[in-house]
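Attaching the record inline, Q. Sequence:
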Amino acid sequence: MVLEVALIDVLPGHEDAFVAAYAQGHPVLAGTPGCRSVRMTRGIESPTRFVLLVEWDSVEAHEKNFRDTERFAQWRALIGPHFAGPPLVEHFLDVSA
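Structure, as predicted:
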């Protein structure tokens, strides 16, 4: 399992519209083959900052099943207009205790 972490800053005043766009686009992302879970969080100290957490089967599942498909275009068309800048996206692996 791979965790995609996307740090998203939205334009001031667009927070509610971004949340609504995320709700509309959630099924597009969550229904992607290889997607295990999707969660969006919002900053308390920085209310225009959101963190998207997506569990994927692999980096390849994220890239080939989502980023390289029409699903990504749909998703980005919904949420992208609210971005203050490009999101910072990275993939992470769990560390054993």
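The CA atoms of residues 7 and 51 lie 5 Å apart. The mean pLDDT is 97.

More tomorrow.
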